[in-house]
Amino acid sequence: METITIKIPDQKSGIVKQMLKDFGVTILEASAKNKHLELSPEQQQEIISSQEQINNGLFVTQSDLDDEINKWLKK
Questions:
Q1: Is 20 exposed, middle or buried (0-12, 13-18, 19+ CB in 10 A)?
Q2: Which residues contact 2 (CB under 8 A, 6 or more apart)?
């Protein structure tokens, strides 16, 4: 397995961390003793793809999604 280190901007960290968790990635905080995370090539590619999507604004915030769901439920 390989190790990858990702530096996530603070303003996007919640979104990126949730996305990684959704892909089954174990996230170790910087304070963790073992700072190495081993990812498969497929996981690495998913992360790169996700970062590109975020950089291109192709994401929905949780609050926006909640608002959409609430509007739909009220119909």
A1: buried
A2: 38, 39, 40, 41, 44
Structure tokens at 31: 């304070």
Query: Do 4 and 37 form a contact (C-beta atoms < 8 A)?
Result: yes
- Segment 49-74 shows an average pLDDT of 92
Instruction: State the CB neighbour count (10 A cutoff) for residue 72.
Output: 8
* DSSP-derived secondary structure letter, 10: G
Residues 6+ apart with CB under 8 A from 3: 36, 37, 38, 39
* Long-range contacts, 13-19 (Cβ 8 Å, 24+): 14/62, 15/54, 15/59, 15/61, 16/50, 16/51, 16/54, 18/62, 19/50
The pLDDT tens digits for 12-33 are 788 888 888 888 887 766 665 5
